[in-house]
Amino acid sequence: MAKRDYYETLGVSKGASADEIKKAYRRKAKELHPDRNSDNPNAEEQFKAANEAYDVLKDADKKAAYDRYGHAAFEGGMGGRPGGGAGGFRGQGDFASAFSDVFDDLFGDFMGGQRGGGRSRAARGNDLRYNLRISLEDAFAGLQKTVTVPTSVSCDKCQGSGASDGSEPATCPTCSGMGKVRAQQGFFTVERTCPTCNGIGQIIKDPCRACQGAGRVEKEKSLSVNIPAGVETGTRIRLAGEGEAGLRGGPSGDLYIFIDVAEHQLFKRDGHDLYCRVPVSMAAAALGGDIEVPTIDGGKSRVKIPEGSQSGRQMRLRGKGMPALRGGQRGDMFIELAVETPVNLTGRQRELLREFDELGEKNNPQSSNFFSAVKGFWDSMKG
């Protein structure tokens, strides 16, 4: 049976670049891997065919020979058949080599790896959290706040390298700067963090005395934070690169500001709306009238109390609530009436209240309805 064209096997054109060929093989390797295709009996053969094609096309000399002679380039006198001679495809051994070429691309992100070799794997600094408590007025208006954060910053003496003056970090001899070592285990290549450099790829022979080779020192840092109007408790503000400095020149982490809005003595917040409980006298509730109430921006609003208002009655002031975090209209403010029972009465006041109470049930409709219902309940129980 004639072999399938290598370019066709990988799904690329004959003029494809080395990078295009590698990307095509990555896709095929993930698509056809036997572990992901247990229900496809042909997956293993297709996977091996893709691997064989990539082993040839990734090598400039083999690719040139294949482009000129096709599969015959690796048969008989043209270098031996695949799996045979020194110039041919060598089966499982070359599979490990080919698969190793794309190992980082397929699994590097999951293993915390870094693609390519010979580069420093300086560790990224940790993210930091800062809890900031602000008033409801500040949440309404927004503010610029300076915070002081204890953190790690890059060492000025060694410029973050971790090495003393006049010296440089050396490439780790165990991993050659990769930060990881590989071991062949049958069909697969297994990677582990280098035990000598702990994955950094470099070793410090003469560490900086100021930072003890870490490349960073403990220090407090003052930062200006913009708190936008409309923030709520739990709002998180990210300051990129303002977290802990990385080891030996590694990138800094981020700083997260978590907002906590303090309780207010006058207003209760529910999303964008505000609630204000206003006490009114019994006479004012009965007769009606106008009252002035505070607003969160420091102003005043006049509210009309309808005659005969009861405790718990609410009135809406549109647009007097909190602003939306990302622009838009403000919420509303709700005034809740709390009718206050008079205390510390004089003799005359008591006398007047008794006279008022004797006027009849028509002045207290809720009481009349309630006690009528109670009487009916008791009568039904007797029956």
Explain this structure.
With 383 residues, this protein is an alpha+beta fold. The protein folds into 4 domains: 6-107, DnaJ domain (Helix Hairpins, Orthogonal Bundle), CATH 1.10.287; 128-261, Ribbon (Chaperone, DNAj Protein, Chain A); 267-340, HSP40/DNAj peptide-binding domain (Sandwich), CATH 2.60.260; 347-382. It has 10 helices and 15 strands. It has helices spanning 6-10, 18-32, 43-57, 60-69, 92-101, 103-107, 136-141, 282-287, 347-357, 365-382, and strands at residues 128-134, 143-154, 170-171, 180-185, 188-193, 202-203, 216-227, 236-239, 255-261, 267-270, 273-281, 289-294, 300-305, 314-317, 333-340. The strands form 6 sheets. It has a 4-stranded mixed beta sheet. A 3-stranded mixed beta sheet has the order 1-9-8. The chain has a two-stranded antiparallel sheet with strand order 2-7. A hairpin with a 5-residue loop joins strand 12 and strand 13 (300-305). The radius of gyration is 39 Å and the shape is elongated.
Task: Draw up the topology in text.
Elements: H1 6-10, H2 18-32, H3 43-57, H4 60-69, H5 92-101, H6 103-107, E1 128-134, H7 136-141, E2 143-154, E3 170-171, E4 180-185, E5 188-193, E6 202-203, E7 216-227, E8 236-239, E9 255-261, E10 267-270, E11 273-281, H8 282-287, E12 289-294, E13 300-305, E14 314-317, E15 333-340, H9 347-357, H10 365-382
Parallel strand pairs: 1-9, 11-15
Antiparallel strand pairs: 2-7, 3-6, 4-5, 8-9, 10-11, 12-13, 14-15
Helix pairs in contact: 2-3, 3-5
